[in-house]
Amino acid sequence: MPTLRKDPIGGRWVIIATERNKRPSDYGESVRSPQAEFCPFCAGNEDATPPPIAEERTGDGWDVRVVPNKFPALRSEGEITRRGEGIYDEMSGIGAHEVIIECPEHISDIAELDTAQIEKVLRVWADRLRELRQDPRLRCAIVFKNHGAQAGASLEHAHSQLIALPIVPKRLAEELEGAKKYQEFRDRCVFDDILQQELDSEERLVYQNEDIVVIAPYASRFPFELWFLPRRGEPWYEHADLRTYHCLAEALQVVCRKLNRALDHPPYNLMLHSAPFTDEDMSHFTWHLELIPTLTKVAGFEWGTGFYINPTPPEEAAKHLRDMDI
Amino acid sequence: MPTLRKDPIGGRWVIIATERNKRPSDYGESVRSPQAEFCPFCAGNEDATPPPIAEERTGDGWDVRVVPNKFPALRSEGEITRRGEGIYDEMSGIGAHEVIIECPEHISDIAELDTAQIEKVLRVWADRLRELRQDPRLRCAIVFKNHGAQAGASLEHAHSQLIALPIVPKRLAEELEGAKKYQEFRDRCVFDDILQQELDSEERLVYQNEDIVVIAPYASRFPFELWFLPRRGEPWYEHADLRTYHCLAEALQVVCRKLNRALDHPPYNLMLHSAPFTDEDMSHFTWHLELIPTLTKVAGFEWGTGFYINPTPPEEAAKHLRDMDI
User: Fold this and answer.
1) Which of A169, A305, B43, B281 would bridge B305 by S-S if both were Cys, CB 3.0 to 4.6 A apart?
2) Known catalytic membership, residue B246
3) What residues of chain B score a pLDDT lower than 70?
4) What is the secondary structure of B137-173 as a DSSP string?
5) Which residues have CB under 8 Å from B276's CB, separation 6+?
6) Strand, helix or coil for residue A230
7) Taking the model in full, what pTM does it have?
8) Alpha-carbon distance B95 to B163, whole Å?
C-alpha cells in the first residue's frame, strides 16, 4: 500500500510508492532506452494493459484510450486515513493514476498527429477530470506528459498521465496563494495582467490563435520553457468551452513542431495546472499548460535552493521560436 | 549582466544568466561526457583558472584551492538595484560564484580522498562562508557539489561550488519558516526531535559517529536520499566547532563508500543548508547536508506538483547502506 508522508521541516508531501518498489540493483534499468520491440499501447495489443477506464471511438477501433497505470503511484480503493508516527505525519496513498494513450498507431510525437486527434486527447483529459472531481476523496488532479526517455518516458508510444490526489500539492498551492495575494493587492487577476503585458510587448510571445496565447514566461526557470494560456481566464481546464480545446490542439501542434526544428526534437515535460476540485471562488486563477524541454541538468544548486539558473533569456527563446518556420 | 527575476504567480526567483548565454545549438553539448584530456583543476594547470580567492597550503603546493567560477551565474561587483518592468520585478544579479577544487591530484571521487583531506575541504567551505557573510549585500550562501556528469558536473576533477545570494532562496526560506512554526507549536527544535526519533528507532539510521548522524529522511523525495545532521544543533555551518568538520569528513567518506558499493558509484548532488547571514535568533534551525543520488528522472509529475514519487522506502535504503561493508 503506497503512503503519503509529510516532511516535518518544509511541509512537503511525498509518495512512498511501495508497489513500484525498486531494489538498489534495479536502478541501472532507468538508463536503458525505451525502444521496445513490443508496444503495449499499440492497437491490437489491448490485452497487454489493464482493462480501459474510458475509450474515445469514432469508427471501428479506438482513437484515444485511458487505462489504469500498471504500476500506480497511488491506489484508487480504500478510505483516506491519517496517522502520526512519532513526530511524523502520514496518510494512506489514495488517488488515481491513469494513462492516456494518445493514438492507436505507434507514433511517439504528438507533433506528428493531426489537429483533430490532438483535440480528442485534450477533450479526454477534460472528460477524466470531470469524472474524477465527483470522487469526494480527491482534491485535485494533474495531467502531464513525459516525451522522450530523457524526460522520463518509459514507453515511446505517445501517451500522457493523470494523477489525482487527496491533497493539493505544494506547487499548485503556491500558485493559488500567489495569485490570490496578487488579486487582493491589485484587484486584478495576475493571469490577465500577464496576458496583457505579453500581448502588448510581444517580446516573449511565441504564438497566438483565437483562444490560446503561448509565451516564454518572464521568469523562465529553464531555457525554452513555455506557457500556454487561454485568453479567457477560467480556473478549471475541464470547464473550458469546446473551441478552446480545438485552439489548444492547434497551438500544441504548431509549437511542438517549432521546438522540433529549433532544438532538434527535444525531450520535454508538459504539465496541466488546473484549479482544485472545489466549488469555491477561484477567479484569481487560470488553468494553463507548462512545457519544459529537457535541455539542462537540474543539479545541486537548484535542489538546494529551489532557485534556477537559466542561461537563455526568454526573450531570445521566444524570438527564435517565433521566427522558426514549420 | 545577469539579472534576478521574480515569477509574479508563485513568487519564485530565477537567475537569467546572460554571461553563460547559450544559443539553441549549444544544448547538444550538455550530453558530452566530461572526460577532459586537459584538466584545469589539476596542480600544474593553475593558469587555466582565474587567480585564486583562497588557498589551503601545508607544504610546497596547495591542498585545496578556491577560484571564481569562469562562467559565473552572478557577478560580485556592483550595487543591488531593484526595478519593475510592468507587472514584473527584477533585481541586479549580484552575488558570488566560487569553485572549491578539492584536491591537487586528478581524483574525481571524494570517497577516495583521505579523511584529513576531506576535512580540509569542509573547513575551507566554512572559511569562505565566514568571509562572505561580511559582505552586507549578501543574505546567504549555499555550498553544493555535483558529482558525475549525470548529476550535472561539467568537470571530472573533484570540486564543489559556492553561490552567495542577495536574497534567501525559496527552499531555505520554507525550511526556516517550517522549523519556526514547529518551534512555536511544540517549543522544541524540529531537528532535535528528528534526531531523537531516528536514534531511538534506528530504522532509518545509516551511520553515526561522535558528532554526526546520517539518516535516510522519513519523507525522502528520492531513493537513497540522505541527510547528515550534527548532534549539537547549530544554525550556521561556519560556526560549528572544528571537531565537527572532522566528524563530518569521516561520515562523508564512509557513507560515500557505502553508496559506491550499494549503487555502483552513483552520480549525486550534495547540498549544504545553513542559516542566512544574519544575527537574528535562528535557534529553530540546524545546518545540515543533503545528498541525493541521481537514480530516477524528475519528470512532469514532479515539475507540475512539487510532489515526489519515491519507489524505495527510506527504511529499506537505510538498512541496505547500514549493512554494507566497506
Assistant:
1) A169
2) no
3) 19-36
4) T--EEEEEEEESGGGT-S--S-EEEEEEESS--HHHH
5) B139, B140, B168, B172, B176, B282
6) strand
7) 0.91
8) 7
Question: What backbone torsions phi and psi does residue B135 show, to the nearest 5 degrees?
Answer: -80, 110
User: Which sign does the torsion angle of CA B214, B218, B219, B223 carry?
Assistant: positive
**Å from A44 to nearest chain B CA?**
28
* Nearest chain A residue (CA) to B13: A307
Q: How many Å lie between the alpha carbon of A32 and the closest alpha carbon of chain B? A: 12
Q: Which of A148, A128, A139, A211 is nearest to A173 (CA)?
A: A139
| Alpha-carbon gap, residue B190 to B40, rounded angstroms | 43
Can you tell me whether residue A124 is helix, strand or coil?
Answer: helix
By the CB < 8 Å criterion, does B168 face chain A? no
State the burial class of residue B326 (Cβ atoms within 10 Å of its Cβ: 0-12, 13-18, 19+): middle
Give me the catalytic one of B97, B159, B246, B288: B159
CA-closest candidate to residue B229, choices A9, A185, A235, A167 = A9
Residue B200 CA to residue B198 CA, distance in Å, equals: 5
Q: Per residue in A146-185, is it b (16+ CB within 10 Å) or e — as a string?
A: bbbbbbbbebbbbbbbbbbbbbbbbbbbbbbebbbebbee
**B17 interaction partners in chain A (CB closer than 8 Å):** 309-311
* Per-residue cell: B253: 567518506
Instruction: Give B170 to chain A, closest Cα distance, Å.
Output: 6
> In terms of DSSP bridges, do strands B212-215 and A205-208 run parallel, antiparallel, or are they unpaired?
unpaired
CB contact set of A269 (below 8 Å; sequence gap of 6+): A144, A145, A146, A147, A151, A152, A291, A292, A294, B299, B300, B303, B304
Check CB contact under 8 Å for A269 and B179.
no
CA gap A237, A153 in Å, rounded: 24
**Residue A54 near residue A66 (C-beta atoms within 8 A):** yes
| A residues 264-293 lying closer than 8 A (beta carbon) to B | 264, 266, 269-273, 290, 292
Q: Which of B14, B145, B301 sits opposite A220 (nearest CB)?
A: B14
Q: Which residues of B touch A170 (CB under 8 A)?
A: 305-307
Please state whether beta strands B82-85 and B226-230 pair in parallel, antiparallel, or not at all (unpaired): unpaired
Q: What confidence score (pLDDT) does residue A58 get?
A: 87
- SS3 call for B313: coil
Largest CA distance in chain B: 59
Q: Residue A30's pLDDT band (boundaries 50, 70, 90)?
A: very low
φ/ψ of B65, rounded to 5, equals: -135, 135
Question: Which residues in chain A are contacts of B291 at CB distance < 8 A?
Answer: none
Tell me whether B10 touches chain A (CB under 8 Å): yes
If you ran DSSP here, which 8-state letter would residue A215 be given? Answer: E
What sign results for the dihedral spanned by CA atoms B158, B162, B163, B169?
A: positive
DSSP notation for A21-62: ---GGGGGGGGS----SS-TTSTT-GGGSPPPSEEEESSSSE
Chain B contacts in chain A segment 192-231 (CB below 8 A): 193-194, 197, 201, 217-221, 223-224
Q: Does B301 touch chain A (CB under 8 A)?
A: yes
Q: State mean pLDDT over A9-31.
A: 71
Q: Give the minimum alpha-carbon distance from A48 to chain B in angstroms, rounded to a whole number.
A: 23
Q: How far apart are CA B115 and CA B254, in angstroms?
A: 9
pLDDT 10s digits, A174-217: 999 999 999 999 999 999 999 999 999 999 999 999 999 999 99
Helix pair B115-132, B242-263: axis angle to 10 deg: 120
pLDDT band with cut points at 50, 70 and 90 for residue A25 = low
Helix (H, G, I), strand (E, B) or coil at B98: strand
